[in-house]
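Assemble and predict.
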Amino acid sequence: GQNIDQPTEMTATEGAIVQINCTYQTSGFNGLFWYQQHAGEAPTFLSYNVLDGLEEKGRFSSFLSRSKGYSYLLLKELQMKDSASYLCAVLDSNYQLIWGAGTKLIIKP
Amino acid sequence: GAVVSQHPSWVICKSGTSVKIECRSLDFQATTMFWYRQFPKQSLMLMATSNEGSKATYEQGVEKDKFLINHASLTLSTLTVTSAHPEDSSFYICSARAGDSSAFFGQGTRLTVV
């Protein structure tokens, strides 16, 4: 079957760095997405990785290792507004998005 | 970035009536559109995937006769909740993708059935 695992909840301190991991087992791979979702709102796109390596975009970076079926989202200089759920999703061989359950990130002052 | 417009943002309807939700890609041609439902405190649940000009592919457990999806053009897909009941009250979200690009999401529609 297809499976995406990410931690249910994480807590971090304002100004610190946090890494949210995602492991996946899917039928084929055509890219991995990270989305941010605030409560009551639709998810917003953060990053897309299809090749191995690190993609940096401001305070957010995303890493992919296809051989390990592993990705992480790195958030630097955490701000209170970063408190949200972070969703990992994989585009499988049929170009269907397979979603993880999301990681709720709690930022403390 | 690309814009996906979903309408309406919220709707209240009486039990037994039907509700149509529109999803439009404003500045790109969406070859594929996805419809999701979000249950409280849970992640998004994919309901169906539709490719322009063909019938939607529904996920297991989703009633295709109840949730009618039409993707007649490259910029518009609609989800019609037929004979809505209170248990259909939820947050419905569409996303659209052009080819292999990233998927962009609409603002979501909060449906309340009374």
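The mean pLDDT of chain A is 89.
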